Amino acid sequence: MKAIFLTTILSIFFSMLLKAQCDVQVNDRDDGTTVRYMRPDRVGYSDRFILAFSMQTNGVQFCVCTLSVFESNSIKLKGNLILKFDNNKSATFEHYTSELTTYNGYPATISIFLADAIDLATIASSNIKIAMVNLADNTFQTVSVKMNSDILKKQYNCLKQ
Predict the structure, then answer these.
(1) Is 19 domain-assigned?
(2) Which residues constitute the signal peptide according to the record (predicted)?
(3) Structural domain range at position 106
């Protein structure tokens, strides 16, 4: 009886702990669409910017979002986002939009990339090793992921619940 009670308590504790890691934000838009999203987490940097990733969904389409924080002038991202993963797979995410903004007083760019079912299957089972983006000034940037390599996997698992 004690073993069942202890198992039940531990199960509840661990499920609460896992739910606490899913800080899903909700935005109910005027057009009736509900967008669920997660906050961006830094994954690495290049010689031009710091790169952070997050995910969002409107219930139908999942998107990978990037936040690029620059030291001086921000530059929009263009073209597709290419990610290479720890299992030697790669995924290409179609560029949807890119907007200039500020983040903690620094110039930044927020970009959204569309994810298809194959990309989502790769995200669900992989950690990111390398991210490649194309800037609007026609420079190509490669970022080695140095931290939070499992960010998309964690956020996707939270958002698909």
Answers:
(1) no
(2) 1-20
(3) 25-159
